[in-house]
Amino acid sequence: MKNVTDSFLSLGHWPSAGSFGFNTDILATNPINLSVVLGVLIFFGKGLNDLLDNRKQRILSTIRNSEELRRGAIEQLERARTRLRKVEIEADEYRMNGYSEIEREKENLINATCDTLERLENYKNETLHFEQQRAINQVRQRVFQQALQGALGTLNSCLNSELHFRTIRANIGILGAMEEITD
């Protein structure tokens, strides 16, 4: 212990310039080195401590901000999941309503097509009936014309002028009698 105190006291007795060398006395040099290192650490440690405290506060602040952002992100994720579930439910409803609507439209189209086909069938039948009646009337007219021509030809060949005059007078008499009845 005496050596340690002696080394501190002997600081003022160091020989002045002229000799430079290594002190090999470990007990004399270690306390000086330690005191210098401790002095430097204490001097710079205060600033370092403030620097570390600031750094610690920034890290804690960053962690708090990150936690808040994480909570916000989780809330947004939950809201997005909720919206997604709602949208999926709505999509399923639209899909089912769409299928129902398609089936209704299909049924309506089939019914409308059946109605149209039925009307066309009725129109076709009416047209066929009309054409048949027209054809029958044309045949009747031709038969009547041919019969009339045949009858006229027969009458003209069979009638002489006196028989012709008597037939005309008889018809005029019938017409006159009919005129008296109506008056």
Could you give a short description of this structure?
One of its GO terms (molecular function) is proton transmembrane transporter activity. This protein is an all-alpha fold and 183 residues long.
Structure description:
With 183 residues, this protein is mainly α. It has one domain. The protein is rod-shaped and about 195 Å long. The termini are far apart. About 6% of the residues have low confidence. Belongs to the ATPase B chain family. Keywords: ATP synthesis, CF(0), Chloroplast, Coiled coil, Hydrogen ion transport, Ion transport, Membrane, Plastid, Thylakoid, Transmembrane, Transmembrane helix, Transport. One of its GO terms (molecular function) is proton transmembrane transporter activity.
Topology overview:
Elements: H1 2-9, H2 26-158, H3 161-182
Subcellular location: Membrane
Organism: Wallichia densiflora
GO molecular function: proton transmembrane transporter activity
